Amino acid sequence: MKIKIISIFLLALVAVGCSKENLDPIPQTALSDAVAFSDSSRSVQQVFGLYSALKQGQMYAGRYQVYQDVRGEEFLNRTNNAVTAWLTWQFNLTASANEVQGFWAACYATINRCNVVINGLNTSPVSAALKRNLIGEAKVVRAISYFMLMQLYARPFTDGNGTKLGVILKLQPETSSGNQDQARVAAADIYAQIIKDLNEAENELPISYGANAAFNTNRAHRNTAIALKTRMYLNMGQWANVLTEANKIVPAGAPWRAASGVANELVPTFSTIFTNYTNSEMILSMPFTALDGPGGQNSLGHYYNPGPVGGGEFSLNTTGQGIAANTDWRTSDARRSFLVVSGGQTWLSKFPNPVNAADPSPVIRYAEVMLNLSEALARNAAGTAVDARALALLNAVRKRSDPTAADFTPADKDALVNLILTERRIEFLGEGLRTSDIARTNATFPAKGTISSIAPTTDQYIWPISIAELLVNKSCQQNPGY
Question: Do residues 88 and 75 touch, judged by C-beta distance below 8 A?
Answer without folding.
Answer: no
